Amino acid sequence: MSNFNLFLRSLLFTLLMILATLIWAPMCFLFAPLPYNTRYFLTSFWNRFVIWAAKTICGIRYQFKGYENLPDSPAILLSKHQSAWETIFFLYAMPRPLVYVFKKELLYIPFFGWGIALLRMIPIDRGNARDAFAQVVERGRKRLADGQWIIMFPEGTRSHVGKKGKYKGGGARLAVETNTVAVPIAMNAGECWPKNSFIKKPGLITVSIGKPISPKGLTAPELMQQVENWIESEMRVISSPGIYSKDNLSDSLEAATPDSA
After folding, report:
1. Residue 174: which of 189, 158, 153, 191 has the closest Cα?
2. Which one, 3, 190, 226, 253, has least CB within 10 Å?
3. Do 168 and 154 meet the contact criterion of CB atoms below 8 Å apart?
4. Better pLDDT: 90 or 105
5. CB 215 within 8 A of CB 179
């Protein structure tokens, strides 16, 4: 496919996504009085449309690997983060309503921020890390008790394809504090929807879900190391050939040694 064709497809997709946001965000206010699960489901139609448009217009397909590993119990999902694609996809694709932990500044984005403000998410102030984590634990307990799952991206921000960001321990600390299993997720969405790129590329995204890891008997750093090791090892399996360089492979193997836990 030519670069010009990719540009036209990406432009059409972006315009449709903007239009859908302008239409759907105000409609979310109409869902506010409804029971939460109903409100969540109706709000997620925006997400379904965007993923459908990405598939139809840009040729971005997806498949699950290990979907059966998702537990029928409270869980904290800890996912690789390469793209905006997964933040949109997970909200409707998981069997339970999700609670995202994100920086509160996202609530200030017109239209988009209005929609997520009506959902039971956990916005945090990154400038006050201690209070922010206490808030995550307090609200997280309530959300887990209500049957929702919490999803966090340990790298904090999107990593470039073939690269590994620094894994932060907040998700593992939450799992230990609440005695909730952590579910590691690897995915290669950045190969089709790259970070900070207008151009969307056709291809197949694999969302690989690992087996739940119990926090019992583990410290938060030990749990986070297990999550990181599984995700980065799985990334080398699901990524396109040649994506991970020898240097990246060496870094990942070094991170997997006991001394680094």
Report:
1. 153
2. 3
3. yes
4. 90
5. yes
